[in-house]
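Example 3.
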Amino acid sequence: MTTQTQAARPSAVTADRLRSSAAALRRRASRLKIVLGAVLAGIVVVPILLAGVLPLPDPLEQDLSQRRLPPFTDGHLFGTDQLGRDLLSRILHGGQVSLTIGVLAVLVSGVVGVIAGAAAGYYGRSVDAVVSRLLEAQMSVPLLLLLLLVVALFGPSITVITLVIAFAQWPEPARLTRAMVLVEREKPYVAAARVLGLRRAAVLLRHVVPNIINQVVVVMLLLLAQAVLLESALSFLGAGVERPHPTWGRIISDGQGYITTSWWLVTLTGLVIVLLVVGVNLLGDGLRDRVSRSRAAKGESR
Amino acid sequence: MARYLALRVAQSLLTVFLIVSTVFVLVRLAPGDPAAAIGGPTATTEDLQAIRDELGLVGSVPQQYWHFITGLVQGDLGLSYSFRQPALDVVLERLPYTITLAGAAILLTALIAIPLGIFTARRANSGWDVGANIGTIAGQSMPEFWTGIMLLTLLAVVVPVFPASGFTSWSGLVLPAVTIALLQIALISRLVHREMAGNLAAPYVTVARSRGVAERALTWRYAFANSSIPVVTALGTRFAAMLNGVVVVEVVFAWPGIGSLVVRALETRDYPLIQATVLVTSLLAIGVQLLVDLLYPLFDPRVRVGKAVSR
């Protein structure tokens, strides 16, 4: 009886209003981005991972009688290229090269960036000055030409290209980590840990870094998307992994000459890159929204 | 103001020094003998010695470094092998084309990205907002060389509206500039959106609104005036990254600038030429950024009186 009087009181906040509130919209938007991103990236990544198992022709097998067949002919789903090689097989195997380089580059740049950024933010003074000047210097020059020079000098091996991309990307995690550590080091738990007798390096590694690593890891997905784009741009310009490895950039640069007669070479390869990169970017962006919202909900600064 | 200026100039000089030294170290760390790579299998010992002389690979490392630096100051960046001319001259000849293309692209970016960002920021938390968000993510996910070829095929081959390649008339500038701008618009409009949305939701705007200031004035004189500094900064810093796109797009459209030059230099292993393009484009980007920073007082009176602006 008594509980009923409370329930009968009409509230101005209806379920309808809650659904159309800004917070709900943002939550739906990030969920949409995560689902859409995962699906798009999955469409590309799963076949790439399975490229060795799928019943596909060898990516290097030439058949000059089967040159530039349009898609859906003779069992070539994506058609063939100017040397009669199966395009789908080449794209998937090229994807393995791109993803390998991308993932390795992001791991290297992530580790280097987090270490440099955390040290700069935590120790400040001269460490911060050195790291910050390096970041500024690197971000104020067009790196692509320098990367091309390095590949020209050291040769286009997977290792060199991975390191070159990692070098191009370390400022991103470094800046982010530095900014977050600057906020984090002022918090009471850092002072408490110091009072309890932990050394500064131990506080940084065991308490500060674990608190911020979530957000950095999410940004790594966005870096992976950039790494894939950079790798394809390098190989488009002729600084990709050596032949006979198929790479996305080279398939497109070789196909550019045939664009009027064989549209599929450039178009389909490019669409695969776009699908993958859009997917990874959406996924990363959606996850970043979610992580920063959960931090904000906990009352922490973003 | 003088202090700020001196600090910025010193910073730029430090960056130039770091880049120059990086290039110097890289060339010397490279495996194998660059002279042998350039000279080829038919080179005699005298040839190789001449090439080493030319590359400045003679003497102790500090000596080489001194030689390298003094050469740079005098504008000597070595001889380009494929052109048989000073590398600097070859690069400078191409530079105006690259600057034209980059300038057109950045103008286009500013003209579209700023209104677009403001438009979506004023409709924060609506379908427009989400749509623009996803749209800009898609926009920054497309490789420029691919969008370039696609635009080229559609608008120069299938429907011949624009010239396909090179720089024969001003209309040849349209497609490459649009290709570069597409990516930049996606990036800059996101930034404009974030800044504007933050400022429009700030208490000072609410106060002004409650005092009866018109929405148009709130948008432009209040929120945009405060968003312009980070946006101009971003346009300045993006310039360096945008040059990367310019290099790639030049190759697609056979634009006679530095990008197509570099690809040729790469094929012929013309190290002095690649080195010259690295240094010249770096100087260009550093110069543009310095210029942008020196323009701050026009946008923000706080800089004029010498107070630090937190960025």
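Chain B touches chain A through 60 residues (CB under 8 Å). The two ends of chain B are 17 Å apart (CA to CA).
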